[in-house]
User: Which sequence fits this backbone?
């Protein structure tokens, strides 16, 4: 069936996408964004997988690597805070490509770091690019997804991060014995630099962003025809998005139109969730290594956190679309139990592996669900800002998490105590998510 438009019938972009099924164009976009997050996740988690070998190579204590972990995460925070609003002004595509180049160069340089101080500086620079890519892939995927499938599509796309993070563990297990820890960063630098060229040629700009900005009507028409090839658009057709253009700083609008309580609760969820996620992902390989596993085995078992996250994300997508914040609250409640269980697994690598998988299922799955719900809540003009600032505030937690883990392990606290403490932030995230169910309403 062919839809023909006339100048007197403006096309509502949001309605156009919402009324149509997901087609090949949106699936290809999802794959492009997911692949961006695969290399993003690989580079973000690489430092955790190489930590035991790096510490032995440079004769460092375990606690000495805490500032290195946090330097990269501080860069992630700054990147998310800065590049989210920038993309709301300049567009998603350019920022995604620039960010991919930035973290590729940073990772490549990390392979040649001569000491721990250079390592900290280079991880910070790498983090800037990593932080810029994430909120914009979330926003872009959200804006091309029908409302009824938005959370599911964003969560499936974001599986790319968990796949990349898990892949880092398996690749590290293969590379470390033969080539050493620097080889992991070489791979993490070369791949995104080549992939940035692919993105520059194939990634579309956000159609809602283009329509709101009043830019390049021919480009908007072209993208709509790719969304639905059966549509015939008049050369004089006009486009509209049922959202007002917002003047002033995008960040200020996170606290207008009754958004303040929801924004602050999103920040609590992200802060607590990412504190747990990065405490676990950075220190689990070291903890498992201390239980007697080899570096390769520790990397594989640590990667189960992200493998569990992929399974959890796929399993939770439809529940989040249907039950929204109620499902999110239950997910984080179960996450707290899974985290605590790691500390009660004793020296059994099998039980530890099962507990890590369960924790990843809920912690990573919950975080990805939070990304999707945040993107659905904010309107187009501040979507990257809303997601970017939630991730940026969350990164404060991600900085604190590895430091807290380093302090607890350096003081040789029992593992039961370490993981009971780590379970508390997940409980806080569950409580904040439950409150979001009372105050949060989607923008569209």
Assistant:
């Amino acid at each position: 069936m062919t839809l023909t438009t006339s100048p007197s019938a403006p096309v509502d972009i949001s309605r156009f996408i919402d009324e149509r099924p997901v087609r090949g164009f949106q699936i290809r976009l999802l794959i492009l964004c997911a692949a961006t997050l695969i290399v993003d996740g690989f580079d973000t988690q690489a430092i955790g997988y190489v930590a035991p070998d790096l510490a032995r190579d440079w004769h460092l204590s375990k606690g000495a690597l805490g500032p290195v972990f946090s330097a990269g995460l501080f860069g992630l925070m700054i990147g998310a805070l800065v590049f989210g609003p920038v993309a709301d002004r300049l567009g998603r595509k350019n920022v995604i490509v620039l960010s991919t180049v930035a973290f590729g160069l940073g990772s490549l340089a990390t392979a040649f770091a001569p000491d721990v101080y250079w390592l900290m500086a280079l991880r910070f620079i790498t983090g800037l690019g990593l932080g810029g890519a994430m909120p914009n892939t979330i926003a872009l995927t959200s804006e091309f997804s029908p409302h009824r499938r938005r959370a599911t599509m964003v969560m499936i796309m974001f599986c790319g991060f968990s796949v990349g993070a898990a892949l880092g563990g398996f690749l590290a297990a293969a590379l470390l014995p033969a080539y050493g820890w620097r080889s992991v960063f070489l791979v993490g630098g070369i791949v995104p630099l080549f992939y940035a060229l692919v993105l520059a040629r194939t990634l579309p700009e956000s159609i809602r962003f283009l329509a709101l900005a009043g830019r390049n009507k021919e480009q908007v028409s072209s993208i709509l025809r790719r969304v639905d090839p059966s549509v015939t658009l008049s050369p004089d057709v006009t486009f509209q998005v049922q959202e007002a253009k917002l003047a002033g700083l995008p960040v200020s609008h996170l606290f207008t139109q009754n958004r303040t309580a929801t924004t602050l609760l999103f920040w609590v969820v992200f802060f607590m969730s990412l504190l747990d996620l990065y405490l676990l992902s950075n220190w689990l390989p070291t903890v498992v290594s201390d239980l007697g596993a080899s570096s390769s085995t520790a990397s594989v078992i640590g990667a189960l956190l992200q493998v569990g996250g992929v399974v959890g994300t796929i399993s939770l997508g439809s529940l989040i679309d249907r039950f929204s914040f109620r499902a999110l609250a239950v997910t984080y409640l179960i996450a707290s139990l899974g985290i605590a269980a790691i500390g009660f697994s004793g020296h059994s690598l099998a039980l530890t592996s099962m507990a890590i998988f369960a924790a990843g299922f809920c912690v990573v799955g919950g975080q990805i669900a939070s990304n999707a719900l945040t993107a659905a809540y904010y309107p187009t003009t501040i979507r990257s800002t809303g997601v970017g600032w939630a991730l940026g505030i969350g990164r404060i937690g991600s900085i604190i998490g590895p430091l807290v883990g380093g302090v607890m392990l350096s003081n040789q606290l029992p593992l039961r105590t370490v993981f009971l403490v780590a379970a508390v932030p997940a409980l806080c995230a569950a409580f904040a998510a439950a409150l979001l169910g009372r105050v949060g309403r989607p923008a569209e």
About this structure: The first strand starts at residue 3 and ends at 4. The mean pLDDT is 85.
